[in-house]
Amino acid sequence: MTECADGRSHESTLEHSPFISEVRAVSSALFRRLAGLEEGTAEYQYVRNALVEANTALVGFAAKRFSKRTEQMDDIYQVGVVGLIKAVNRFDPDYGVEFVSFAMPTIVGEIKRFFRDTNWSVRVPRRIQELRISLARATDALAVELDRAPTTAELAARAEVTEDDVRESQTAAGAYTACSLNAQTFEEDGDSAGAAWAERIGADDPALESVENHIALKPLIAALPLRERTILSMRFNDDMTQSAIGAKLGISQMHVSRLLARTLDRLRQQLLAPA
């Protein structure tokens, strides 16, 4: 997941911010008050909402880690607020940690889940999305250990999944990003524009449909008399007219037409006859 390169500096700023120190103190007092209230009451809801309002600055700090995604900042902030609400609902002062330390991983995790769910060009199951991340880490670790690219079996063993899971994840990884079929490719020099991707995609060859007929016709044509074979070759291989064929063979154009029609009709019947 892409994060701001100075993510650590944000954490440092968070720890030393005077405002955050005040938030810690207010949150501690509000959680103590919340612990003495009955869940579901109006006062409980009021204190809970006050906790969320008091800690919205945490969402801003978390969102800065993803500041390169400027076009999504509004969505990131809203998702971060959802993470904050979840942190408030789950936090227990008896955990022995401050709420800020508990809430930040929850908020950041919610934002990362948002990216996993929305940034894929093609929707894939959450299991595959998470496996892709695990395999990426395993690939890096094994490449260092083995001094080569790991095999599918080695990745499966490290991630404790099957080899089929690894292959499925690797196939699904291609769905993370997609480009337009009209986007231009580039030649080997990296400067000159090549053809669009759409022009490089293969298509069905219409001649493939006639391959089976050609194979079936071959023995049938071989069984024809020499004159009929010659006429077929002149007409369809050499693209000669019936008049030119007649002149070549010393017969009339009408005779060539009758022989050609009779030969084609015979071949058609033989070709369509049940086996």
SSE map:
Layout: H1 7-16, H2 18-35, H3 42-54, H4 56-64, H5 73-90, H6 99-118, H7 126-146, H8 152-159, H9 163-172, E1 184-186, E2 193-196, H10 197-200, H11 208-222, H12 226-237, H13 242-249, H14 253-272
Antiparallel strand pairs: 1-2
Low-confidence stretches: 1-12
Any idea how many domains?
A: 3
What structural category arises from helix and sheet content? mainly alpha
* Main sheet specs: 2 strands, antiparallel
* Number of DSSP strand runs: 2
CATH topology-level fold name of the largest domain: Four Helix Bundle (Hemerythrin (Met), subunit A)
Euclidean distance between termini CA atoms: 62 Å
The order of strands across the largest sheet is 1-2
CATH class of the largest domain: Mainly Alpha
* Integer average pLDDT: 79
Helix content: 55-70%
Count of alpha/pi helices? 14
The value of Rg in angstroms is 37 Å
Per CATH, the architecture of the largest domain is Up-down Bundle
What is the N-to-C succession of helices and strands? HHHHHHHHHEEHHHHH
Beta-strand content estimate: under 5%
User: What form results from the Cα inertia axes?
Assistant: rod-shaped
